[in-house]
Amino acid sequence: MARTGEPDGEHMVRGFETLDAATSYAIARVRASVEELRKPGIAAPELRQLWHIYGEDCSVLNTNVRGSDLLDDFIATPATPAECNWQALAPRLRRFRASLLISNDNNESVWAGGFFRSTYRLARDGLLERFRDDAIAAFKAKGIEPAEPKRRTDLDGCDDAPLVDAAQRHAEDADRLAVQFEGDVARRRGQARWSGPQD
């Protein structure tokens, strides 16, 4: 955790599979930042002041979940190591393989794709963005102009992930569930906050 009291910028963690997973992560992250500042015999007002200078605040985007709303409870009741283990709750990178047929405005297409790592399976726009440079290079290698990928017309396989139903695809297109952090707790603006080093 940063010990300067200066803002460290915003950081967003994406890829939580459920709202409960994102909420548990945000609460554990804030709880850990309180415990890192706790010293034997420290008074609650002093710990609160230290947390507002050096602590981490997290919230789950598009919800009313904010770790700092529980700050008084966290200060009053020391946490167990398990309650502070936010690293175990972080989304894990998975390996995927995608084969895409990408077209330009003239309905000319090239194949692009390969392996990539992500915390969740990318949807249509995410795949197009991920393999955009590969598609441009493929268009240019074939002498196709304009070499500007516009749409994905086919997907041939994706390892390590089940097929995605329409509701889940809509959730992925909406950036999934995310926790965002911002540098300095004292300068809250409403999303999620973090006042510590970026992992």
Task: Explain how this protein is built.
With 199 residues, this protein is α+β, with helices and mostly antiparallel strands. The chain has two domains: 11-90 and 176-187, no CATH class; 94-173, no CATH class. The protein is 31% helix and 19% strand. The chain contains six helices and six strands, in the order βααβαββααβαβ. A three-stranded antiparallel beta sheet has the order 1-6-2, with helices on one face. Strand 3 and strand 4 form a beta hairpin. It is elongated.
Quick recap:
The protein has 199 residues and is α+β, with helices and mostly antiparallel strands. It is 31% helix and 19% strand.
Strand-and-helix sequence, N→C? EHHEHEEHHEHE
Tell me the overall shape.
elongated
Computed CA radius of gyration, to the nearest angstrom: 21 Å
Could you give a short account of the major beta sheet?
3 strands, antiparallel
For this structure, the quaternary state is single chain
Helix content: 25-40%
Total count of strands: 6
List keywords for this structure.
single chain; 199 residues; alpha+beta; 2 domains; 3-stranded antiparallel sheet; 6 helices; 31% helix; 19% strand; disordered C terminus
